[in-house]
Structure formats: structure tokens, C-alpha cells
User: What shape does this take?
Amino acid sequence: MNYSLLLPEIFLLLWTLFIFVLDFFWDKSKTHSLGWLSLLGLGITAGLLFGSGKGNLFGNMFLSDGFSFYFKLVFLSAAFLAILSSIDFVKKIDKYRGEYFGLILLSTLGMMFLCSAGELITLYIALELTTIPLFVLAAYLKSDSRSAEAGIKYVILGAISSAILIYGISIIYGLTGATDLALIQFSLASQHLKFGALGPALIFGIIFFIAGFGFKLALVPFHVWAPDVYQGAPTPITAFLSVASKGAGLAAFVRIFFVSFNVFQPDWVMIIAVLASLGMILGNIVALMQTNIKRMLAYSSIAQIGYILIGVVAFSWRGISSLSFYMFAYLFANMGAFIGAITFSNVTGSDEIKDYAGLSRKSPGLALCMTVFLLSLVGIPPLAGFVGKYYIFASAIERGHIGIVIIAILTSVIALYYYVGVVREMYFRKSEKEFSFSIPFSLKLALFICVIGVLLAGLFPTPFIDAATQAAQVFYYW
Amino acid sequence: MENSVQSAIFYILAAIIVCSAVLVVTLKNIFHSLLFLVLTFFSVAGIYVLLHAEFLAAVQVLIYVGAITVLLIFAIMMTAQIYSPALRQSNQQVIPGIIVVGILLVVTLTVLGNTTWRVSEKLPASQSVNLIGKSLLTTYVLPFEVVSVVLITALIGAIIIARRD
Assistant: This one.
């Protein structure tokens, strides 16, 4: 067996433990600099990832393929940006700064296992490893009652969603006697051939899977926790939650549904299509009424997952390729928008949209960056979001799903209104308060990376789409 | 004959589990809730024995009945005002909750009752401990190791959340 496939994960784990230990000996007033060390660890992990080959370990338990490679890069980038934007933020916490970075790394490790898992037990445990650090991180500002509320809500709903998922797993195990995704597919397909329809139990199991993952993805109607948790959690964590945690759930979801349940695709594609449409409609309409930028971005991310799921509804090789690309575009645009909000609230202490008035005069750079991110989230050319939306709509039209594309385009118009609302505040309103802007280096760097990402993927999408296509080739049989 | 005895035991255990679980979430005194939780855990261990999973039953007793219960007792004793009469186990959502659970129960029963489940032809292993140990360190070594990372995460997280600043 080729254990070197696990090298990136093993390295990241050791590096995380190293950070935890180092935290004891570090000068207490300088522990925020452990963030730079965490970034180095993430960089080396990405390097090892490029070096590691493709293959399976322990049967199908750990799959190292193009799909997992692509998503691991997304998670590592998201963790990189989250930590980079936290370095300035953690100075506000007096204690446990090293652990803050360590927990982000542990969650990233869980995501890496999650998108590589080819077996349900491994997958479930990886999911727990992904979410448990996030529970703690959401409640990290102990003195802030909103953060505590976010932590409690997230723990309770996370536990319930895990229970639902486990119940689904047990039903599928009862039907097939297997936890290996490929074996489940084989068993279900052969039973399907032998007896015809498999009866309601399979649908029941699939619905439990959708509900369990629906919580992780903040899919309507399983989204109610998201705005409160997103608002209460420390903003870098919110950014990480909205991108990486969703991406991890999505990767596992795609793997289970495209490998194990592919034969029953007509049964579940309709459910996903309805939920995705609901997400786009409800997320965008409720986002219109928000006055807090974190809540607005929370609802916008509820809508964005709807757009991403169109790639699943298309149920084709191009659908996966387009959702992978969309994830990449969403990573930079959404992380960027949150990092902009972090920068703004570090200076002003406010997350209210009306306080953004006049930002273009006080900090033209920050206002411009925010504009780029928000317009990319709407999907205005030539930014990454446009290419992502175009490609994902094309994949759905190719398979004849015109209705969902029409809903997506109509709701994008609604989205334009509230995203541009922030831009209007920044450029066309005068500010009442006076404050001077000085942005710390780490946040400048994070904003810069995000802008470059959004522009690069928007202007020269070909290499990125090629990479996404290679990721989708894992599911080559369509 | 043996089969009917087994099903009788199963139904008795299941009835105990359901009744005591309902009592856990409805009783006013939290200490009594805890005692019924212990009973629930014990009966689950009984079901494991019925399924010839003796090792699992022993683990269930050790961890749930032993460790977790002791932990909960400590938590109750160390929490101030936990016996306050102002504490309630229910809220205004109890009726919608019962309705939803009732519908879910009926749907689940009809769906699961009308399904042919896959039954393994293999006899239960006589020495399950050996097999579990072996497969934990061969086939399932990856999840087994990842679980240890999950545990350390939970430990670190608990310390961060619970320790006083």
C-alpha cells in the first residue's frame, strides 16, 4: 500500500500539534504570530498535495483522486485566507490564540479527509472532525453573548443533523450491507435489476442524507441556523464556515450521490432541484431586507448554495466541473467580501450596512475591493462569478433543465439589487462619522489575494476550468 | 421456541427504552431524568447482548452507564440552581413538536415495515472481540486513527470553552 498518499494529511496533523505545543513556549504577547506559522504549514501541505499521487488506500476508504485534489486545494486556500484575516483579529482575544489557529487547521484536516472518504464510516468521522472545531470557534468570543448563542445553536443543530445523517446511513446499510460507496452502488443497482423498484426505504434513506447534508450546506429549509451563527461567530470564522465548511459538505454530498445513488438519479434530482430553487428564491429575497452585512452575506450564501447545486441537478460530468469551478470563484469572492467586512469592522466596530456610507472617500482601496467581490457574487462580467454562473447555467440547459435556470437568472436580478445597495452606500452616500483608516498588512495581503483570484479566474478562466474538468473526470461514466 | 423468547425479550427491552427515554425528557427533576437515562443505556446494552454483540454491550455499559453517567452526575452537582422550580422541560412548541414527531413515526413505521431488509446468512462470531480488534487495526485503521484526532479536538475545545478567563 502506498501510504505516501496520506502524506499531506499526516503533515498537516503534525504541524497542528506542533502549533499547539509551541503555543506553550511562545511569548504570550506575540502568540498572534503563530498565525504566520500556520500559514507556512498550509503552504507546505499544498506543496505535498501537488507531490502526492493518485490511488486508494485501505480498500476504498481513502481515495486520492482529481476530485479530492481539487477540493483539498479549495479548503487549503480558504483556511489560508481565514487564518491570514485572523492574525490581526486574534489580538483582541487575550487567551488561546494558538489554539484558535490550531482548531482552524484541524477543521481543514477534517475537510481533507471528508472529500477523500470513499466509505461512510470514514466519511462520518471526517465530518465530525470538520464540525467540532467549528463549534468551538463559533463560540470563541466568550464575553460576547452573540458568539455564545452562535456556538450553542451550532452545536445543537450540528448534533441533530449528524444524528439524521447517521440514521440515513443505517438505513442504507440495512438495505445493502455495505458502507463502501462503490459497493453500495453495486448492491443497489443489482437489487434494482432483480426486483425492479426498491421501495420507499431507499427514498427514505436518501431523504435523510439530503437533510443531514442540508444542514451542513445551509440548504433551504435546513438553513435557519445559518444567519444567527454567521452573525454571532467571529467574522473570519464566518467566512471560513460559509466557504470551506460548505465546500466540504458539497464534496461529500457529490461523492455519495454520484457514486452510490447514481442509478436512482431521477428520484433525487427533483428533490435537489426544488431545494435549490427554494434556496435561491428565499435567500435572495430575505437578503434584501438585511441591514447587517454579516446577515446579508449569510442569506446571500444560502442563495449561492442554490446556484452551486444547479451543477448537481444537471447530473453530468459538465455539471460537476461547473460546480467545482463555481466553488473556486465563490471562494475568493465570498472570502473577500467577508475579509472586507472584517477590515471595516476592525476600524469602525460596526457591521451595519448604513455605516459603509462614504467608504469610497475614506478608503478607496477597500471600497474598490468590496465592489469587486460583491459584483463577482452577482455575476457581472468580467469577474469570476460571471464565468461560474455562465458555465453552471450552460451545464443545466445542456440537460434540459430550463426551469431552474430561469429561476436562477431571475433571482440573480434580485441579488443585484442588494449587492449593489452596499456599493451605493460606499460610493454615493456621505458619511456622518469620521475615522481614519489604516489597514494592517495581513488584511491587505488577504484582500489582494482575493482580488487577484476573482480577476484571474474571471479574465483567464481556461486553466481553472481545465482543472475543474479534471476533477470531474473522476465521475467519468457520464 | 427460542425465537419467540428472543422476540419477547426484545419487545420488553424496547418498551423499557422508549418509556424511560420519554421520561428523561419530561420529568421535572433533572436527577430523576438522569436515572432514567441510565436505564435507557442499560436496556440498549441488553439489545446488544440479544444480537450476540457481547463486546459492544460491555462497552456500552462501561462508557455510557459508567463514565457518561458519572460525568453527568458531576455536572448536575456542580451546576448552581439546577433544581430551581422555574426550570421547565417543555416550551410552547411542545404541541407542534408532538404532531411532527407523530407524523414522522407513522411514516417511518410504514416505510420501514414494508421493506425487505438484507439479512446476513453468516452466524454471529463466537469471539467477536478478536474480530473487532483485528478489523479496527486493519480495515478500519484510518477511521480509528481519525477518531483519536476528533477526541483531541473535543478535549481542546472543551478546555477553551469551559475554562474561566
Remarks:
- Helices of chain B lie at 2-26, 30-50, 54-78, 94-113, 128-137, 141-162.
- Chain B has six helices and no strands.
